[in-house]
Amino acid sequence: MISALKQSLSSAIRSVAPEFSLDSAKFEAALFIQLGLIAQVVIKDEPSSSTTAHVECIVAQEEPKASKRVVSKKMKDTFLATGKSEDDLKRVMKAYKDATDDQIRSAGGDFASFAAHVLAQPVVEEPKKSKGKAKDSSKPEPRVNWKSQATQKVFKEVVEAAGNTVTDDLKKQFAKYINDISQADFEAFSIAGHIRSWVETLKAPAQESISCTQNLGYEDEEFPDEDLEEFQFKDETLLIGEKSRKIYRPTEDAGDVCIGVAGVGQFKEVK
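The structure assignment produced for this chain is given below.
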């Protein structure tokens, strides 16, 4: 662009200089210096009687590099004031800075027109690379999630209510039990129900407490719908069956868990 301008000016100077008795070479050099088109000139006199001198350009000024396109705060505020989002602004700014002058002119010539042009184009999202190893679909998911606080809580309540202590070994035993049953049996009960069923298979520990499943001289079926009454035992509110005299500990997740019988073991003083 600068070269074309210099060429046009040189042609114009050479055509009009004779009319004004000007030395076209000197005038051209002086004009180019004033316009910043060249940086330095050296004038050498010809070794002759002629008074004509010629101009030699020693250092020509390079054409200025294209300045980096900048989006001002006012341009940003005006864009956002139209209801566009910050993500839209980031998308337009990137395209605006990467675009050529011809692309911006073809879109309208200003930032607002270019922004409208960019937003009218569909967004092409690059496929995201998956991180880590793909899950093996052939391997079944475990049926008990020990990371769940609810599962841990109900497991602890039911196990301790049966007179046992929660250990990693007991967790492994229950995990094996729940994973070995059929899918139909697994779906028949909640995790709390499975825990209660599994606890019944454990051997009662050697202590004064007595399991509700022990033979106490009557069958459970004799009192299917008996009422339960609250009573205090060692600063704890428990429930006792009016007829069976079975004692239960109420829990939020596992329901009423049977922990013994009145008059036996730790409840021998309960009548």
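Interim note for the steering committee: The longest helix spans residues 2-16. DSSP finds ten helices and six strands in the chain.
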